[in-house]
Amino acid sequence: MSKQLPLQFEFRANQTFNDFFAGSNLEIITHLQNSIKGAGEQQIFLWGDQGLGKSHLLQAACHQAQSIKRSSFYLDLTNPTLANSSILKGLDTLDIVCLDNIDCIAGNNEWEIAVFNFFNRHRDSERTLIVSASCLPNELAIQLPDLKTRLNWGLTLKLQPLANHDRITALIFKANQLGFEISPQVGLFLLTHYDRDLSALWRLLAQLDQASLAAKRKLTIPFLKTILDDAP
Amino acid sequence: MNSIWNNCLAKLENEISSSDFSTWIRPLQSIESDSQIKLLAPNRFVLDWVKEHYFVKIEDSIREFSNGTMDLNLEIGSKSSATPADAIVKKISKPIETKKVGPSFLNKAFTFDNFVEGKSNQLARAASLQVAENIGRAYNPLLIYGSSGLGKTHLMHAIGNAILVKNPSATIVYLHSEKFVQDMVRALQQNAINTFKEYYRAIDVLLIDDIQFFAGKERSQEEFFHTFNSLLDKKHQVVLTCDKYPKEIVGLEERLKSRFGAGLPVSIEPPDMETRAAILMKKTAQSNINLPQEVAFFIAKRIPSNVRDLEGALRRVIANAQFTGRDITIEFTKEALHDLISLQDKLVNIDNIQKTVADYFKIRVADLLSKSRNQSVTRPRQIAMSLARELTPQGLCAIGDAFGGRDHTTVINACKKVEELKKSDMKIAEDYENILRSLSH
Questions:
Q1: Which of 154-183 (A) contact B at CB < 8 A?
Q2: Which element (helix H / strand E) includes A98?
Q3: Beta-strand pair B36-41/B29-32
Q4: 10 Å Cβ neighbour count for B101?
Q5: A53 in reach of chain B (CB within 8 A)
Q6: 8 A C-beta contact, residue B8 and residue B65
Q7: Among A35-44, A89-98, B72-81, where is mean pLDDT lowest?
Q8: Strand blocks (E) in B129-254
Q9: Cα dihedral angle (B180, B185, B188, B193), rounded to 10 degrees?
Q10: CA nearest B96: which of B11, B209, B203?
Q11: Best residue in A63, A68, A152 for a mutation probing chain B (most B CBs within 10 Å)
């Protein structure tokens, strides 16, 4: 079972395409980047298991949009503070809208109709929509057939999990981005002993960086074991 | 040179989580003057949220980067070009002096030329053409109804585009019923309801999509009823689409149901396999992409539901081929659509075809598998076999086996019989389409 580190740290890394380790998902990044530039699909439906980086990619899309002066909006539909569907009003004036975790509104009549209406307005305005979910549109428990068929309309892309060797490379890549180094052995140790969910692993790396700075020690397996021993 | 707001964004990006930054801060659009930065929020919800949670942070940043010379002003608005909805409101907010062509919101990509005709949509297409050629005289209103994703909206735009070719000065407006409701609500809020009425009642051709969304909206129904009558009295054309026959809409006033059905109601059914393949060939030909016929038939067979699903699958194949540089073959298509096909197999297999058919005809699955030759059982059995042939990748022998160990020739005969009956017996054709629809959603 994975352990939690006894450190408080709020992970604030900016989510960009540059700090996404693509592995076998390069095609997805290419299509997203083309769409953001206005040279690709008008609608992309991105799906895959939790923890593979869907939210990262949607936020990266907004980041890239900003860099080329296109307006964007990112909406995480799991966010309970956004219980009011009126947040969708006026978003059709923005160039790129990203709706993350659309699974969460399935079966909610008010939200389904609001998203359907938003979809029509946004599409008529020929703007770009990027949606994410944990499964294909036809597997979603969406009750409004008009919304379901529209979600199927665009380009549907599946985010593939990273293979084990890619995960170690990804950990080394991410550590480098945070400004420190880890060996492949440390990478393997982390994968074996901690959560395999990528977003959890990135948070862990940031925590380890803090811990190593605080202890003024390099991130070695003995040091990791010391931290693990301190974990509750 | 970086603007003050860009500097603020770079600072705030490191202080706020990426998710919150992308939702609340990045979407704010700035207008900078000498003494003020005006930030535009897309709606009231975002405005209130930003005011409550980020105002101080943003204000501090602006002060820091402007050396205290600039103030912050938060408002609702957008720098982007106006949406069609805005254009309507803009138009209805001014009195209509003379009749002129307003924004039609027609999608030029939808024409009769690129609408693929098949048995399932023949009548709807013919009626639409008639309407385009004889505005207000052929069928008024024309109501096209059928499930989502079958081409109703395409036909509606095609009517508008064809009329515009013949008569460029005609006032044609396409809109979704929800937009009509939204415009009416805005007009009421802005005390512009008379302008709203004048605007809609002066249109030559009004195309309203998805009228089922009027259900339960009494004030909008009332207003639409009068708009509708006014247009029909003046022999102006009205075209409507709906996902079902209007009489079946719960929450729609009886008088509207009866008026909607008073012209020509035509249904549009899910396309058969040949039409689905033809749609795919036409779509790819338009984009100068070579789609081998056998691949078109392969996709058409594996994606039996609606045109949007079909187009989505085609997009996936083309996108993947363009990315990998590979030729589009059946093997390649199987790989590209692996997930969609697996899901389709999970949703539509011989077991659930048998169950759906048995439920539809109110018999038991065991009857379908039995040796009974009673017509109340043989007909559903033949339909189930034919559907299994159309919707699943199973071979004739496997289908025969699944129906109580029957021979493959029995399956061939059942498929032939069903094809004949679909042409000669409307009831059988309807039953088949109903079951097909229910299996495809």
A1: 154-158
A2: strand A96-100
A3: antiparallel
A4: 13
A5: no
A6: yes
A7: B72-81
A8: 142-145, 172-176, 205-209, 237-242
A9: 0
A10: B203
A11: A152
At B35-52, the pLDDT tens digits run: 899 999 999 999 999 999
Task: Say what angle helices B177-189 and A109-124 make with each other, to 10 degrees.
Answer: 90
CA–CA dist B319, A49 (Å, integer)? 22
- b/e for A135-166, b at 16 or more Cβ within 10 A? bbbbbbebebebbbbbbbbbbbbbbbbbeeeb
Burial class (CB in 10 A: 0-12, 13-18, 19+), B215: middle
Closest Cβ opposite residue A152 in set B42, B309, B347: B309
pLDDT in tens, B179-192: 888 888 888 888 88
Q: Which residue is listed with tokens 């009831």? A: B427
Residue with more model confidence, A46 or A221: A46
What is the spatial distance between Cα B323 and Cα A30, in angstroms, rounded to a whole number?
Answer: 8
By C-alpha distance, the chain B residue nearest A81 is B49
Beta bridge partners of B252: none
Q: Which residues of B touch A63 (CB under 8 A)?
A: 22, 26
Phi, psi of B75 (to 5 degrees): -140, 165
Is this structure's pTM higher than 0.90? no
Vertex B249: Cα angle to B179 and B129 (nearest 5): 65
Cis peptide before B141 (omega within 30 of 0): yes
Which residues are CB-contacts of B158 (< 8 A; sequence separation ≥ 6)?
B110, B111, B112, B115, B128, B132
User: How many CB atoms neighbour CB B441 within 10 A?
Assistant: 16
Tokens linked to B324: 């990998």
Residue B360, helix vs strand vs coil: helix
Which residues in chain A are contacts of B15 at CB distance < 8 A?
12
